[in-house]
Specification:
Layout lengths: L12 H7 L2 H17 L6 H25 L1 H5 L16 H22 L2 H22 L6 H5 L1 H15 L4 H24 L1 H7 L4 H4 L2 H24 L5 H22 L10 H29 L9
Length: about 300
């Protein structure tokens, strides 16, 4: 077990909230909500709210467990040194208890109030992030983000299953979109903060394989993401509005990977193409899932021809 971080300052609710990684959670909540709205059928608004709340609590609990385990690593990186645990504002045991309580509560409430299959997927996603990614993959392999990307890909599938009660092709495709989006999104960030990871011994791809290999792999995953993103339209699970939006967004994403892939840059403070790609990747995922919801709502209102999902 890693050494505990000394607590020198009193904690308040903001420190516990920071443990949930609210910026990451906003994307989790949004994609989970989009999966729920885009799913065929209907759900009681109270049950739907409960499902999204449980997804948020589960994501927050997993993030707290992640920070509990990595407190000493976070203390060694400039980007994360101000988090509650490395900054000494929160006791490590409190973070562990907080993460366990949120995680357990989210799964139990999801099972009792929504659906046990959705609860099972939520439990798997928490375990995937907190144990498989954080404890096993991240410190051992540069493929940590590739394999571990599955953890963040569960929310839209959980939202979909909360409505339908079954796993079909469409929620699997939504899972795949986030799965293949994660490596280029995260490696773009890793390129301009790689010295942080190198300093604490985390084998991120730019540290282990070098910038050139990482840049080529970013392009490769962007190429794979293009057909995966438009697949819901191709299989009839979404309409032409989504298909057109997915095509434009994915081509734009791919275009932004080109200056990243075909240049050599070692100065972390001068990586504008990488920072642009990272910033757009977040906009890309929000816009793609928003287009899926807009497509579904428009079809339900009869404004456009609906999908067959």
């Amino acid at each position: 077990m890693r050494n505990a971080v000394a607590v020198t300052l009193p904690a308040d609710w903001r420190d516990f909230f920071a443990l949930t990684k609210p910026r990451v959670m906003s994307l989790v909540i949004f994609t989970g909500l989009c999966g729920l709205i885009a799913a065929p059928g209907s759900i009681n608004p109270v049950i739907g709210f409960t499902a999204v709340l449980c997804i948020a609590l589960g994501a927050g609990g997993a993030a707290a467990l992640n920070q509990w385990w990595e407190a000493d690593l976070d203390a060694g990186m400039k980007r994360t040194a101000s988090r509650p645990l490395p900054a000494g504002r929160l006791a490590r045991g409190d973070a562990l208890a907080f993460g366990i309580i949120l995680s357990a509560l989210s799964v139990i409430v999801m099972g009792l109030g929504v659906h046990w299959l959705a609860a099972g997927l939520l439990a798997v996603s928490i375990f995937y992030y907190a144990v498989i990614y954080t404890i096993w993959l991240k410190p051992r392999t540069p493929q940590n983000i590739v394999i571990g990307g599955g953890a963040g890909a569960f929310p839209p599938m959980i939202g979909w299953v909360a409505v339908t009660g079954e796993i079909t092709l469409m929620p699997v495709l939504l899972f795949a979109i986030i799965f293949f989006w994660t490596p280029p999104h995260f490696w773009a960030l890793a390129l301009f903060v790689k010295s942080d990871y190198a300093k604490v011994g985390i084998p991120m791809m730019p540290v282990v394989a070098g910038e050139r290999s990482t840049r080529r792999q970013i392009l490769l995953y962007a190429l794979v993401l293009l057909p995966v993103a438009i697949a819901p339209w191709l299989v009839g699970g979404a309409g032409a509005f989504y298909g057109g939006a997915a095509l434009v967004l994915s081509l734009s994403f791919l275009a932004l990977t080109l200056p990243v892939a075909f240049r050599v840059q070692t100065k972390e403070d001068a990586m504008l193409p990488e920072k642009r790609l990272f910033g757009f990747s977040i906009v890309y995922l929000f816009a793609l899932f928003a287009a899926l919801v807009a497509d579904r709502v428009a079809a339900a209102q009869g404004w456009i021809q609906g999908s067959i999902a």
